[in-house]
Design a protein that fits this description.
The chain is mainly α. The protein has one domain: Methane Monooxygenase Hydroxylase, Chain G, domain 1. It is 71% helix and 0% strand. The protein has three helices and no strands. α1 runs antiparallel to α2 and α2 runs antiparallel to α3.
Length: 98
């Protein structure tokens, strides 16, 4: 059994000011995925499917950037003293999200 990961001393939920935008984007991505499912069920052209998959990938990347920016602004920038470990964790998070 693996041990739980150590939590950063900085963290927390997505800020209230960003939450609505995140939820709107997630619902839009969900709709895009359902659209692609329909395209596959309807035997649509592979090229059309690939284009839509690329659109979802871009949507997710944009959403990931928004959430990471929220983390940096709300959690790291509000800290009295920024630990290099927290900066490293943020960079690792961004790398993993690519």
């Amino acid at each position: 059994m693996s041990e739980p990961k150590a939590q950063s001393s900085f963290g927390g939920p997505i800020s209230a000011s960003t939450r609505a935008d995140v939820l709107v984007r997630l619902r839009r991505i969900e709709g895009q995925v359902r659209g692609i499912q329909r395209m596959v069920e309807e035997d649509r052209d592979c090229q059309d499917v690939v284009v839509q998959l690329a659109a979802i990938k871009a949507s997710i990347a944009s959403l990931n950037t928004l959430v990471a920016e929220n983390y940096a602004q709300q959690c790291l920038c509000s800290a009295e003293q920024l630990d290099t470990t927290d900066v490293t964790r943020l960079l690792d998070l961004l790398k993993a999200a690519r």
